[in-house]
Amino acid sequence: MFERLGRFVVGKAWWVIGGWVVAAIAIIAASPSLSDITSADQESFLPRSYESVQATELAAKSFPQAATATATVVVKRSDGKPLTPADEARVGQLATALKARNIPQTSGYLTGPQAVAPDKSVQVVTVGLDADSPDDPGLLDAVRDLRSALGPDLAGSGLTAGVAGDVASFVDNEDTFNDAFAVVGVATIVLIIGLILIIFRSPIAALLPVVVISVVMSVTTGLVAAAGKAFDLNVSQDLQTILLIVLFGIGTDYILFLLFRYRERLRAGDDKRTAMVVSVQRVGEVITSAAGAVIVAFLVLLLASLGFFGSLGPALAIAVGVMLVTSLTLIPALVSLLGRWVFWPSKAWQRPPNATLSRRLGAVVGRRPAVVAAASGALLVALAAGVLGYKADYDFSAGFPQDTESARAAQDLQRGFAAGALAPTEVYLTTGNGSPLSEQQVNDFAAAAARAPGVGQAQPPERSTTDPSVVRINLLLDENPMSNEAITLVRDDLRDAVHEAAPPGTKALVGGATAIFADINSANNRDLSVILPVAALLIAIILALLLRSLVAPIYLVIAVLLNFAATLGATVYVFQGLQGNPGVTFQLPIILYLFVVAIGTDYNILMIARLREEAREGHEPHQAAAIGVEHAGPTVAAAGLILAGTFGVLMLAPISFLQQMGFAVAIGIVLSAFVMSMFFVPALTGLIGHKAWWPGHGDERRNGGGRHAAPESADAASV
């Protein structure tokens, strides 16, 4: 099949390239923008069955005047002394003056005695921010205008003010975010070009992946946006960045798989067309199987209860599918036309390489497979033990620079009020049938809610102006509302206490940011418990079909899952152990699933396919392991270094969760490429021997065998 595909693509190269150009232009021109299907609202990705979503829906219906978000103006004396009655009156005047400015998309400007801290250190003015969605850029402008007005309105008063809140924090850190992702984009291109230049010593080979994948990125974005419109999918704002990394990660892998084999065939004496046909024949099955495993891993996300995962899966599956087709059609067509010029001006491809690091490593694996398997396996197990100490961290604000206006204002606010003042836990009481709540019911419930576990302060009940059957009470927690402790508290003790406090004939719902993250925590745990086993099973089936074996897929999947645990454990050791962080970002397990489990499987498939190929050439298991590492090792090393280096650059960002993500994925890819695929899998395969290929006996020598390729130890092995 792949031989016929190779002959068609090489024989009709110009037609293939022309077809790609026409299709790309048509898709890009006709597709909607990806921004049309993006959403920044975490709660919108939760199913309606979760209580925080029900609370949000009740709030939208019963408090339609409620703002999309809020900005909290925190006012204090310049000399640090407690506020005087005159100061409090001046803050009231400030609220009136700000409201009179009619700053677009703002409302409310609420303050008063209840907005003064018990210790008189600060007073707040709560400003509503109005928009159709939380990611409306007009909200950022509203905060900027609000800040610009504070200086003139407080001039000569002896008071200073700062604006806190999620939107204000985003304004302060917008440049940091943009700079971080710009660095990632530039670093990706620089690393790809730089490392491929070192490997092939050719600017053409180095630029080929960048140019092709950039076109594929535009095509994929259009297809994803079209699919989102057709199936009414909302995706996270992070999707563009994730697509970029996935496409450059797997795209570079697949192109390197082809280029290494193409160079090998040229060295063996094939002409440029035959070399590409044989390369597609040999590597096409590997690329297809690897892409199939990644697509399956991404589509398994459809089983997730979190909408973010469910919408992310199809988008990434489309990206991998497009890259698969590109790797088997456009890349072979281009390279077959370029021929030896793809490696210009280097002449190294013409010479059989000298003994290299990959040959020496292969010899070690072949001579001592038991020792290598035990040592590499023990390293993975030791790192995986760190998972036992894993704690999720939901506090994004703690990971941002703390010298910004929003961070300083938030610190002032938390010193004067309960820790949860910036993100109150919203409790709703309703009769559910439209009958009005009595004053007795409201007062009794409010008193009981104020005594609930972890509550520092309770604000006065607020009746709905449109529905007499609903009342809202904001609770300020003693804990940081985004901390793991607060999330556990709300999910368990506080919710139970509030539910029990609801008078007969009424129902209580707990909402707010902490409750949303508590539900995300529950959904996240449920999703991972479903996604990982199902993905492992489906990947094992793909491996079984590729290898026609039931034994090898078992230990290959175990190796992938062990590598996942080792990566998460290593991150826990570094960030919770060495740095003393309260936890690692709650998004990390799914990020590792995307980039370590899914993409890391590519390296396993490439290595095991090469081991089978060498066994079919008549080599005994130990020798096949040695030659397999020698030949496939440089490809795995180059691909792994490019992807790991791209993520590693994130560690330079001054944002904690980006540092954690960069470290975790970089170390995960390094472990996948250099520990699991280079040592553990080939050593274990050599140790198990012919039984690894049972019952299909895929290692049996084919009729008319004999080596199809001259021995090669790629000169990139030292990379």
Automatic annotation (TrEMBL):
<keyword id="KW-0472">Membrane</keyword>
<feature type="transmembrane region" description="Helical">
    <location>
        <begin position="528"/>
        <end position="547"/>
    </location>
</feature>
<keyword id="KW-1003">Cell membrane</keyword>
<feature type="transmembrane region" description="Helical">
    <location>
        <begin position="590"/>
        <end position="611"/>
    </location>
</feature>
<dbReference type="InterPro" id="IPR050545">
    <property type="entry name" value="Mycobact_MmpL"/>
</dbReference>
<feature type="transmembrane region" description="Helical">
    <location>
        <begin position="315"/>
        <end position="343"/>
    </location>
</feature>
<dbReference type="Pfam" id="PF03176">
    <property type="entry name" value="MMPL"/>
</dbReference>
<feature type="transmembrane region" description="Helical">
    <location>
        <begin position="239"/>
        <end position="262"/>
    </location>
</feature>
<feature type="transmembrane region" description="Helical">
    <location>
        <begin position="283"/>
        <end position="309"/>
    </location>
</feature>
<feature type="transmembrane region" description="Helical">
    <location>
        <begin position="632"/>
        <end position="655"/>
    </location>
</feature>
<dbReference type="InterPro" id="IPR004869">
    <property type="entry name" value="MMPL_dom"/>
</dbReference>
<protein>
    <submittedName>
        <fullName>Drug exporter of the RND superfamily</fullName>
    </submittedName>
</protein>
<keyword id="KW-1133">Transmembrane helix</keyword>
<keyword id="KW-0812">Transmembrane</keyword>
<feature type="region of interest" description="Disordered">
    <location>
        <begin position="699"/>
        <end position="719"/>
    </location>
</feature>
<comment type="similarity">
    <text>Belongs to the resistance-nodulation-cell division (RND) (TC 2.A.6) family. MmpL subfamily.</text>
</comment>
<dbReference type="InterPro" id="IPR000731">
    <property type="entry name" value="SSD"/>
</dbReference>
<feature type="transmembrane region" description="Helical">
    <location>
        <begin position="207"/>
        <end position="227"/>
    </location>
</feature>
<feature type="transmembrane region" description="Helical">
    <location>
        <begin position="12"/>
        <end position="31"/>
    </location>
</feature>
<feature type="domain" description="SSD">
    <location>
        <begin position="525"/>
        <end position="686"/>
    </location>
</feature>
<feature type="transmembrane region" description="Helical">
    <location>
        <begin position="661"/>
        <end position="681"/>
    </location>
</feature>
<feature type="transmembrane region" description="Helical">
    <location>
        <begin position="554"/>
        <end position="578"/>
    </location>
</feature>
<feature type="transmembrane region" description="Helical">
    <location>
        <begin position="180"/>
        <end position="200"/>
    </location>
</feature>
<feature type="transmembrane region" description="Helical">
    <location>
        <begin position="369"/>
        <end position="390"/>
    </location>
</feature>
<feature type="domain" description="SSD">
    <location>
        <begin position="206"/>
        <end position="337"/>
    </location>
</feature>
